[in-house]
Amino acid sequence: MIIHPVARRILARLATSLVVVWGSITAAFLALHALPGRIEDILAGDLIYPGLREAIIAEWGLDRSLFAQYVDFVGRIAAGDFGLSYVLRQPVAQIVGSQIWPTVHLASAAGVLALILAGVAATLTAGRGRLARGLAAAVELTCASAPVFWIGILLLMLFSFTLRWFPVSGAQSWQALVLPAVALALPTAGLLAQVLREAMERALEQPFVVTVRARGLGEGLIRLRHVLRHAALPAVTLGGWLIGGLLGGAVITEKVFGRPGLGTVTLNAVLSHDVPVVLAVVLLAAFIHVAASTLLDIVYVVIDPRLRQQ
Amino acid sequence: MTAAAPLALRRRSALAWPLLAAAAVCAGPALAAAQPQPGGSITFGVTTEPVCFNPQRSTQQNSFIVIRNFVDSLIAKGAGGRFLPWLATSWTISPDGKVYDLKLRPDVTFHDGEKLDAAAVKFNLDFVKDLKNANAASELVRSLAQVDAVGPHEVRLTLSQPDSTFLESLSSIRLGILSPKALQSGDQLCSGGPALAGTGPFLFESYTRGQSVALVRNKDYAWAPGYAAHTGPAYLDRATIRFLPEYSVRAGALSSGQVDVIEGVQPTDAALFKDQPGFQFITGPSGAQTAFTLNINYTIPPATDVRVRQALRDGADIGALVKSVYLGTVRPAWSNIGPENPFYDKTLEGTWGNDPAKANKLLDEAGWTGRDAEGFRTKDGQRLTIEVGYPQPYVRDNRDVLIQGVQAQLRKKLGFDLKLRITTGGEWAQQLAKGTWTIYPNTYLPADAARELDANIGRNGFISAVADKADQPLFDLIEKAQRATDIEAKREFTAAAQKRAVEQAFIVPLFAANYQLAAKDTIRGLSFETQLDSPSNLYDVWVAQP
């Protein structure tokens, strides 16, 4: 049986992804055991009470061999069982599961917003006069290097405390999503716009642009229909990395805006040394990274004909 | 019984100490104007989202600001430390201090409809005491030997030994009474909601993690604590507690009118609300929790030498450092017991601190006369150094900055290397278990003064792992204070213990922490709860029509 080369590429990519996922689970397990102190103390977090140590030893099988513990750990994670948070006294999966959606809303709104902002900025300014490009570059650089925390506070001061257009916190309405999404989107948009504009400027110098121009197409259509598509490839490459940035930024954004979500859970877990929750979030972040980069690689194969011919 | 009554009465009146500065704390000048009106709702922005809403399990001081709204205690603690009726209308203590007879209110119902009776109280105390249930509050009932329901609403508590801290423990929110049905449910009740059924003036309607808690008035409430300003149900229909961990965001939310009250105001933000039209700013007492204190492990060299400890205590100008870090919003401390605590030893004030000349002399005498390349003192080639291990979860409101200030002054003025290292909770737990910590900075949860001394610098304190090498005279004083059945004897022993700890420089008290509230001026009836040392619940709060 002959497997189609595209399918083979995709299968190979999926297989490497699985190896990376297994590697991250192993790394998490080793990190847990490498921490100074007894594992049961580490897992217990800051709320030690009588009887807890014994309960943890029984639940994690800490009296068994390291290898048996490892096999058990991998098996449990594979089954979606992240254990119990001893600080919050709830199953970790329940805590993370109930808090993932506000973060997904925030991160996806910010992601879409960043794409739109970067696309518009790059399309409007690529290859234009020095002043426009210089101005755009300065704004992008400011956005890309400003901390989310600081942008968030500035946005709040202007639009919430002074103008009172948007509420300060919460996740109960779309209005409450606007400021956090903008705060989270701006650094990403700044970075993306820089990459996109450079790529567009390179594409604008390509012979095919001269050809399209010769066909009498307007400048706007040339940019939108032809140049942007070519220039999008490097930006897609950045995508996987940016998803990580959005997740990391969400932690800080949620704290500044007092929003529920994984960020708040993670921060509280770190502060109260709720290791089972931290472990789950770290693994989840690793899975999301792997899933995103795998997906992008597959998308690459589909949209770039050159990759299909190899 | 009859013989016990007069004695207990006498003791209770003896407990009515002259009102201290704490009693002067009130809700500001706006309060006097109008009559309280029922109705309305408020939003309260707080710093901390409780990790656990079950009072018997929580150890987070800031969680109790929220929890007090739906949980009552058997006994109330009023201003000046007087014990007042709450769920128990009266109590008597036997002459030997070992038998407490409590009479309960007959008309109290839990939020889940269950009746409060002697059996429910017995169930609660037995539940907390049973180590299997893993309740943090079990430390408060260590001396409790037996609980008997001697009548439908009469409870007899028998102690294994006299315990002068016991009334305080009964008044603590950590021994708040919950519905036995809820406790029996097997749920740990940490995530709150209606399942966490207390008897308080508000019902716990819902909890949105990371965001808010919704409270709704308990319209049947008729058992307000003895210190409350009114009786009957709370004034507010509803209240929302909003978690806003960022200082500047809380201040901005209040100044833009998006919340009505905030707790935890940064010194630099206080001017936004203090004496500003439309706002009020109130500072709470510092009586129930301990002062922020450096506890020194004096069993480990070089801190075994009293001269080294005294030099550490006196080398820096702590008053000036506290002033510059907190801009006059907190007070320097002279003892680890809070300055508004009735058992605070006032005679310690001005007796120590800020004397670098004497500190240098002490270090010279102790043989730390060499100097190394960095200018630190040495003895036999060893640098004079002690580490402050500060567990990260407890680092807050610039306390690490304050310690860095002390560190800089000790280095400059004495050549003393005070190291500050931020550690983890797990590492601290280990050091505590082995007694290997060197200096531990802390404030302790509100409790009776004798219990605080015991839990910090007594036999059950941080030094417990190496207690045999520690200061037995100090332990004896603290134990006597705990067992004293006479208030004057207790005062004497707690004062002597504080004096010994400071004179021997087992501790270096830094400042007395307090709470700040800022609110719109239409919000009336805000106050502080003596037992909690933090903002009271919202029972007496009402909204004035502007």
Helix content of chain A: over 70%
- Write out the strand line-up for the largest beta sheet of chain A, numbering strands in chain order: 1-2
Total count of strands of chain A: 2
Class inferred from helices and paired strands of chain A: mainly alpha
Profile the largest sheet of chain A.
Answer: 2 strands, antiparallel
How much strand of chain B? Answer: 15-25%
Please name the CATH topology of the largest domain in chain A: MetI-like fold
Distance between the termini of chain A: 20 Å
Number of domains of chain A: 2
Description of the structure:
The complex is a heterodimer of chains A (310) and B (546). Chain A has 310 residues and is mainly alpha-helical. Chain A is built from 13 helices and two strands; from the N terminus they run H-H-H-H-E-E-H-H-H-H-H-H-H-H-H. In chain A, a hairpin with a 4-residue loop joins strand 1 (84-85) and strand 2 (90-91). The two termini of chain A are 20 Å apart. By secondary structure, chain B is of the alpha+beta class. In chain B, 26% of the residues lie in helices and 21% in strands. Chain B has 14 helices and 26 strands. Chain B has helices at residues 4-14, 63-67, 118-129, 166-171, 180-184, 247-255, 306-314, 318-326, 356-365, 399-414, 425-434, 449-457, 472-483, 487-503, and strands spanning 41-46, 75-77, 83-85, 88-93, 99-104, 144-151, 154-159, 202-208, 212-217, 238-243, 261-263, 279-283, 292-296, 331-332, 370-371, 377-379, 382-383, 385-391, 417-423, 439-442, 507-512, 516-520, 523-524, 528-529, 534-535, 542-543. In chain B, the strands form eight sheets. A seven-stranded mixed beta sheet of chain B has the order 8-9-10-1-11-22-12, covered by helices on one side. In chain B, strands 4-5-7-6 form a four-stranded antiparallel beta sheet. In chain B, a hairpin with a 2-residue loop joins strand 16 and strand 17. In chain B, helix 7 packs antiparallel against helix 9 (356-365). Chain B is globular, with a radius of gyration of 24 Å. Chain A binds chain B through residues 35-38, 41-42, 45-52, 87-90, 95, 98-99, 102, 153, 156-157, 160-162, 164, 167-171, 254-261, 264-265, 268, 271-273, and chain B through 49, 51-52, 57, 59, 131-132, 134-136, 138, 188, 190-191, 208-212, 242-246, 248-249, 252-253, 255-259, 392-393, 424-427, 429-430.
